[in-house]
Design brief:
The complex is a heterodimer of chains A (624) and B (229).
Chain A: H1 5-13, H2 15-51, H3 57-91, H4 94-102, H5 107-146, H6 157-184, H7 187-191, H8 193-197, H9 213-224, H10 226-265, E1 269-273, H11 275-286, H12 308-316, E2 320-336, E3 338-341, E4 349-352, E5 357-365, E6 375-378, E7 388-392, H13 393-399, E8 407-409, E9 418-425, E10 433-437, H14 438-445, E11 452-457, H15 462-474, E12 479-482, H16 483-501, H17 503-525, H18 528-536, H19 541-575, H20 583-603, H21 605-613, H22 616-621
Parallel strand pairs in A: 5-10, 7-9
Antiparallel strand pairs in A: 1-11, 1-12, 2-5, 2-8, 2-11, 3-4, 6-9, 7-10, 8-9
Helix pairs in contact in A: 1-5, 2-3, 2-5, 2-6, 2-17, 3-6, 3-10, 3-17, 4-6, 5-6, 9-19, 10-16, 10-17, 10-19, 10-20, 17-20, 17-21, 19-20, 19-21
Chain B: E1 9-22, E2 25-38, E3 42-46, H1 53-60, E4 68-73, E5 76-77, H2 83-93, E6 94-97, H3 109-119, H4 124-137, H5 153-165, E7 171-175, H6 183-198, E8 202-206, H7 210-215, E9 218-223, E10 226-228
Parallel strand pairs in B: 3-8, 3-9, 6-7, 7-8
Antiparallel strand pairs in B: 1-2, 1-4, 4-5, 9-10
Helix pairs in contact in B: 3-4, 3-5, 4-5, 5-6
Classes of the chains: A alpha+beta (624), B alpha/beta (229).
Chain lengths: 624, 229
């Protein structure tokens, strides 16, 4: 018999076990392949939006970061689940290895024989997994695109190859561990179930007597199947971390990005100015969600100037919470290199940045009157700042190496550059904005006055106040624009992108649940024999279901406690700056996570049901 | 489910058949078998390997259902009940000693014994007393906290006997109880079965062991799925 035919025949003889292993590995591989291709294409979609002049760098970074994070977790989860499935299968062969050793087979020959079996299982499953993953990807994109999405169907072969290599390597390493361990052990050890399970005498001796019999048996079983239990907990912890990051990240990031926009644009704010300028301002805000070419205008034209008396009148209106006068214009800006300490050694100074230039919207503001509350990296402009600026996120990312350590030239090249004290996430002009003290701006351009007024209105008296503002404004032929309508458009745009991005976590969740089901099936099939004995001794099928359910619940709850905490920590610490966590966020997040835990617990009933459907004699005859 | 107190027929099988389909080949393990065992009888069933001894014990022990025919154990027609009822029936009426011991590997010896009476809902103290008494009966009081894998073959078989007796079942079924044991350990098992016989329990043993055959009040020969006295 050739060296390869023996393992092939052995796998064929153990048809049920082989099929279950191949199925579990195929699902896990297919899920990973699917999510990686889907995630990559989703990333391209977001990057296309950013390149097409929509979405500011700050926002697209959050989407990218989220997709990248989830993709990395997927790439980790796939091999971990796959590896544990392989490990579990190969652990089940330890007794056979012991028998072969006892009958005189050399360790090297045993290792080669089982490693061949391992390779056959892994390569077969990887192949079927990739085919299934690609098929699932095409099926999903066809369905989603027919529902109005526009997800590219391009296959990223490099990503598939990467998944393939990672899965094959991980599976071989983890699968070879129990084979190596058993091949090195004494025959009597390898044949002993205690060695295979990692059981130690003291484990589970003291089980609380108040617990019911089924829970006690389940608890003992878990503790004494130390190796399998710890594997299941690690595996599920990773899955639940992924689920938490995707769900919590998705919900919180959605609300947080909406809040960034709301803070940047402001709620209950009206803009007063010359109709040309107010329309321009609205168009500049719309650049966040639609690419618009705008004609050049002279912002400093005298017809756009707003009188001081109007500002005073507006301030005197009952129900006006604040007036934020601004002088707005467009100008080219230039990067000024900065000097920082060399990041690793921190001993010598190095130069960063160059002389890149771009067109930007310049806004002169009175810092103490500013109505907006952007998400700011660094700090906002202070009352005493003179030669300081705060730049928008897209400008900071695209024109600077490290904006907060560099400065910017705005007007006359002979003037000294302005310090950059903060970078704000701002949808205005798609993040290409420079905020500077009004006084400094007046001095530098040699012109005084304002061309736009931002008025914060008391929400409770909105209608009457608006009427008065419109009254005062129309007297000077100025237009009043409510920003709430345009703000809602921004939020809707973000919601639409999130609804697309959230498909990724939803698919990850579904595939994680299916992978877990495969894991449970394999794990329970290893306990069939003992369940058969229990039933022969008088345990009802319901009791066996309770035991399996209790075992799964304990594993799920322990993994849930670790995975969910870790997932929340990752989400709030690294994924989203200044996350918005409202009461409704917490409620929906808790509901999601509880639903996931519940779903996982319930999913354990399926393999349990399959286990009790066998006849007692068949269950007892099952290979341990 | 209450036990009958009036003396009755322990097992009545009539026209019993059990077929298995293995790779499209139908194997008749039990063929049109009739059997009656009185309560308190010690019956041994012997015959060559593959004769159907284990299948017959599985049918009597309510672990398996006949393809055709009828099997009545303590007035319960086993073919008519669902799995839930049969589970309760097994825990009340049957003590089963398997040839390969079939101890639960993740439970210690004492926990394996206690499992059966825990299922029956005994109190904690009664479970403790009963388990210790049975361990003493089989001479393993010092090995109660050991896992099956840490026990010798004979010790495992003794634990299996103790477990089978835990719930004080009226019918004890033992499948080749000395088959895997050396002569000396086999004698210990014979000793245990003698004690059980003296208690007046109904015992059906499938065996090749002459000592066990001698212990039986009646020996039946099973060949090709058919019984002869």
């Amino acid at each position: 018999m050739s060296e390869i035919s023996f393992p092939v025949k052995d796998l064929a003889r153990r048809r049920a076990q082989t099929a279950l292993t191949v199925l579990g590995l195929t699902i896990s591989t297919a899920a990973t392949v699917f999510l990686i291709i889907f995630g990559t294409n989703l990333g391209f979609e977001i990057s296309f939006l950013a390149r097409g002049g929509r979405l500011t760098s700050g926002f697209s970074n959050i989407f990218f970061q989220f997709i990248l994070f989830v993709s990395i977790l997927n790439l980790l989860t796939g091999p971990i689940i796959t590896s544990f499935l392989v490990h579990l299968t190969m652990s089940g062969r330890m007794r056979d290895i012991g028998v072969m050793k006892a009958s005189g087979c050399l360790s090297g020959a045993i290792f080669a024989y089982f490693a061949t079996e391992l390779s056959l299982l892994v390569f077969l499953s990887t192949l079927t997994g990739i085919v299934s993953g690609v098929a699932a990807f095409y099926a999903s994109t066809i369905v989603l695109n027919s529902a109005g999405f526009s997800i590219s169907q391009t296959l990223n072969l490099a990503a598939i190859l990467l998944v393939c290599i990672v899965l094959i390597i991980f599976s071989h390493i983890f699968g070879a561990l129990p084979i190596r361990r058993a091949a090195k052990a004494k025959p009597t050890e390898a044949m002993s179930p205690i060695y295979k399970l990692g059981t130690t005498a003291g484990l589970g001796k003291k089980v609380p007597s108040r617990l019911g019999l089924t829970f006690k048996v389940a608890f003992r079983n878990l503790l004494r199947r130390k190796s399998a239990t710890s594997q299941a907990i690690i595996c599920l912890t990773v899955v639940l971390t992924l689920a938490t990051v995707t769900i919590a990240g998705g919900i919180v990031a959605n609300q947080t990005t909406a809040s960034y926009v709301e803070r940047a644009i402001g709620r209950n704010i009206v803009v007063v100015g010359h109709p040309t300028l107010t329309d321009r301002y609205v168009n500049l805000l719309s650049r966040f969600f639609e690419d618009k070419e705008l004609e050049q205008i002279d912002y400093l034209s005298s017809e756009f100037v707003i009188s001081e008396s109007l500002v005073s009148k507006m301030e005197d209106i009952q129900g006006v919470d604040g007036v934020d006068p601004r002088l707005v214009l467009e100008n080219s800006v230039r990067e000024v290199p900065g000097v920082i300490l060399e990041p690793i050694e921190q001993t010598e100074a190095i130069m960063i940045g160059g002389n890149r230039s771009d067109e930007a919207l310049i806004l002169g503001v009175e810092p103490e009157k500013v109505a907006n509350d952007w998400l700011i990296f660094g700090r906002k402009l202070g009352e005493n700042d003179q030669d300081a600026t705060m730049v928008g996120d897209s400008l900071a990312v695209n024109m600077f190496s490290d904006a907060l350590n560099q400065s910017i030239k705005v007007f006359d090249e002979t003037l000294l550059p302005y310090d950059i004290v903060g970078v704000c996430v701002d949808p205005l002009n798609n993040g290409k904005v420079v905020y500077m003290p009004l006084e400094t701006l007046h001095k530098d351009i040699g012109q005084h006055g304002y061309n736009l007024l931002f008025i914060q209105v008391d929400a409770s008296e909105n209608l009457q106040v608006l009427a008065q503002i419109e009254n005062e404004a129309s007297a000077e032929n100025l237009k009043v624009v409510e920003l709430d309508t345009i703000l809602d458009k921004h939020v809707n745009f973000l919601n639409n992108i999130w609804s697309l991005v959230m498909l990724l976590p939803l698919f990850s969740l579904a595939t994680a649940a299916i992978s877990l089901l495969g894991y449970l099936m394999l794990s329970i099939s290893g306990q069939q024999h003992e369940f058969g004995i229990m039933r022969a001794l008088g345990a009802k099928p319901r009791s066996i279901m309770k035991i399996v359910f209790s075992q799964a619940s304990v594993i799920i709850l322990v993994s849930g406690a670790i995975g969910i905490s870790f997932g929340l920590f990752l989400t709030f610490r690294f994924l989203i700056p200044e996350p918005v966590i409202s009461q409704s966020t917490l409620i929906s997040l808790s509901a999601w996570l509880l639903a996931i835990l519940g779903l996982l617990c319930v999913s354990s009933l399926y393999p349990a049901l399959k286990a009790v459907k066998k006849t007692v004699v068949d269950a007892i005859s099952a290979v341990e | 489910m209450g036990r009958q107190t009036v003396k009755e027929k322990a097992v009545v099988a009539s026209g019993l058949c059990r077929q298995f389909e293995i790779d499209d080949v139908v194997v008749e393990a039990i063929k049109n078998l009739d059997l009656t065992v009185e309560e308190g009888e010690f019956v041994s069933i012997y015959g060559p390997s593959g004769a159907g001894k284990t299948t017959l014990l599985n049918l009597i022990g309510a672990l398996d259902k006949p393809t055709s025919g009828k099997i009545v154990v303590f007035n319960h027609d086993l073919g008519t009940y669902d799995e839930n009822f049969l589970a309760t029936f097994r825990s009340v009426y049957i003590g089963f000693v398997f040839q390969s011991y079939n101890l639960i590997s993740t439970l210690t010896a004492v926990e394996n014994i206690a499992f059966v009476i825990e299922l029956a809902g005994w109190s904690k103290q009664r479970i403790k007393d009963r388990s210790e008494k049975l361990l003493k009966l089989v001479g393993l009081q010092h090995r109660g906290n050991h896992f099956p894998a840490q026990l010798s073959g004979g010790e495992r078989q003794r634990v299996a006997f103790a477990r089978a007796l835990a719930n004080d079942p009226p019918l004890l079924l033992a499948d080749e109880p000395t088959g895997n044991l050396d002569t000396e350990t086999g004698l210990e098992i014979v000793g245990i079965l003698e004690k059980i016989r003296e208690e007046g329990k109904t015992v059906i043993v499938a065996t090749h062991d002459e000592k066990l055959l001698k212990l039986a009040s009646r020996s039946l020969f099973l060949k090709d799925g058919r019984l002869t006295e």
